[in-house]
Design brief:
Blueprint: H1 2-12, E1 15-20, E2 27-31, H2 38-43, E3 48-53, H3 62-68, E4 72-74, E5 79-80, H4 81-91, E6 96-99, H5 120-125, E7 128-138, H6 156-164, E8 169-175, H7 188-203, E9 236-237
Parallel strand pairs: 1-8, 2-6, 2-7, 3-4, 3-6
Antiparallel strand pairs: 5-9, 7-8
């Protein structure tokens, strides 16, 4: 039912979807993050659940769809890796789970660094990782679409209205070959880098391309860097951005 709703929502919004490959059952899907549209676009392709911040549950329509689709909602703040891994083991028996490890959305002109600590989930559960490359393009020119990105101080209602009034939006989804912890990917950081590299290559953009990610006005203090957790030690991650955990 959730998959049908995702497809119907994409149809209502006039989004055409081009898919390369398919989601592999029992994998942890890792994708670049551009918009809340990523959820229905990818969710329309299979029995896929998502990890989301708790406040998304209160979003009009989107929150209801996410809850119906079996989304795992987590409170903003510190979340133990063990707790999420336990939910992953349960969900992995029936459906695929998707995460967005960039930690926020961007305009799609590049892919932000993937946070390695999220890859502890694959290490804890033994699941393979399947990279998923997402892009939004104009039907006429094939250029990156500037309406699809949900970034900065944008609101859901304003963005939704722009999408509805914007014909010719095409979403591209590339389900790439799975990767796993092995002799070539011995750490979370290496696995994160390999996954990100596979996505940027599929999108045809440079690995060092810096996407646009507006920040709120006024002085801000960058957070202190968080080191990768030591395997087996309780770890926490903070929630930020939209419709994801990172």
């Amino acid at each position: 039912m959730a998959r049908r709703w995702h497809r119907r929502l994409c149809g209502i919004l006039g989004i055409r979807i081009r898919v390369v490959g398919r989601p592999h059952p029992g994998c942890l899907l890792i994708g670049n993050h551009i918009s809340w549209l990523d959820i229905p676009v990818v969710g329309a392709q299979g029995e896929i659940a998502f990890l989301s911040k708790a406040e998304v549950r209160d979003w009009p329509l989107i929150g209801w769809l996410a809850d119906t689709a079996g989304t795992l909602f987590v409170e903003r703040g510190a979340i133990r890796i063990e707790e999420i891994a336990g939910q992953l083991r349960k969900i992995g028996r029936d459906r695929t789970l998707m995460l967005f490890p960039e930690g926020t959305t961007s305009d799609g002109s590049g892919v932000l660094r993937f946070h390695p600590r999220l890859f502890a989930l694959a290490q804890e559960t033994g699941l393979e990782i399947q990279p998923v490359a997402i892009a939004y393009r104009c039907d006429t020119s094939g250029a990156h679409d500037n309406v699809a990105p949900f970034i900065g101080d944008d609101t859901l209602l304003a963005h939704l209205l722009r999408v509805v009034r914007h014909p010719g939006l095409t979403a591209e989804v590339h389900f790439l070959p799975p990767v796993a912890f092995d002799e070539e990917n011995t750490t979370r950081r290496l696995l994160a880098e390999r996954t990100r590299r596979a996505i940027v290559e599929a999108l045809g953009i440079g690995p060092d391309a810096a996407p646009h990610r507006p920040r709120p006005a006024g002085p801000t203090r960058l957070p202190d860097p968080v080191p990768d957790p030591i395997h087996g030690r309780p770890e926490s991650i903070t929630t930020d951005g939209i419709a994801h955990v990172a």
